[in-house]
Amino acid sequence: MSHPYVLLSAAVSLDGYLDDTGPDRLLLSSPADFDRVDEVRASVDAILIGAGTIRADNPRLLVNSDERRAARVAAGKPPYPLKVTVSGTGDLDPAAHFWHTGGEKVVYTTDEGAERAGELGLAADVVPLGPALDWRRLLEHLRSAYGVERLMVEGGGRIHTQLLQEGLADEVQLVLAPLFVGDPDAPRLFGPGGYQSGRLRLVESRRIEDVVLMRYEPTAPGTGLTPVAADHHWLSLACELAAECPPSRTAFSVGAVVVAADGTELARGHSRESGDPVVHAEEAALAKIPAEDLRLGSATVYTSLEPCTHRASRPAPCARLILDAGVRRVVTAWREPDTFVEGADGTGLLTAKGVDVVVLGDHEGRAKAPNSHLL
Hints:
The protein is of the alpha/beta class and 375 residues long. The protein is 28% helix and 20% strand. It contains 12 helices and 14 strands. The protein has helices spanning 31-43, 51-57, 66-74, 97-100, 111-118, 135-146, 157-165, 227-242, 281-286, 318-325, 346-352, 364-368, and strands at residues 5-12, 46-50, 82-87, 105-109, 125-128, 150-153, 171-176, 201-208, 211-217, 255-259, 265-270, 300-303, 329-332, 356-359. A 9-stranded mixed beta sheet has the order 5-4-3-2-6-1-7-9-8. It has a 5-stranded mixed beta sheet with strand order 11-10-12-13-14, sandwiched between helices. Helix 5 (111-118) links the parallel strand 4 (105-109) and strand 5 (125-128). The protein is elongated and about 70 Å long.
């Protein structure tokens, strides 16, 4: 990936506001959640906020825990993540806490904004991105110039919206606070516009004192890509899942993802998932989708290895499970070798029943890698 892993972090009221319109910042998180945020900050390489958030909240964006800073240093990192802000105009307050606490800082701006920011004498690198802000170029520069692999974005709402709209967010960490703001002039988390992600996938929900943390992954970064590019994206994910399988001497390591026609991820799975020594990847993924889900009929199963046609551990092989689920399209990276079953031909069985099977050989090496000890 040419840009960092992008994690959006925010706390909102029950009616979706980041703050009220009063002169003081509205505290939405609980003390325990503030500590969780400190832990997340300690885990990333950089933290990004907009210039508007600097003006409104005057944050320090520090890792407050001595132990966490020490752990960063022990791992060869600076005690504080790189602090990043974005301003199209270069209109920045040089007296803000942002510039005078923590470690290194960088400002991304336009060519015009760079001239203005350069006159302020900021203790920061100033990077012009051209006549307009370009998020992809910004993220690529963060990775190539500063080695940023994980980026935490703490706002504001406009920046969160833009990154989601451009399909550049990899994770959303949302804290829901038990209060209402009810002021239409208050800032909201997300604004209107077309979003590149489809239905988000809930990864975790957790109560933290009186707030609730919800972690989501955008499930359709392939939306807006060509169909071929989307196929490569999802099959690449299936190969990543194969690498997560517990190793075995008697079965392949396989990953699978089921994706609806609109690009929404329905489920994923991998071999030997959840401690089951005989479960297959396609089986694990399909088991998570209700049989009555009407999206299955137009969905695609992406699997790192051709679905099996024979198995001793279950009554039905994966090719039969796919047919029974009503799925009519399969994309795979690798035809099953004769290692365990002579003459295996999942593609033949599926195509004979009208399923469209696509083999993308570009991914074969990655699909084979976690199985090299069997080949």
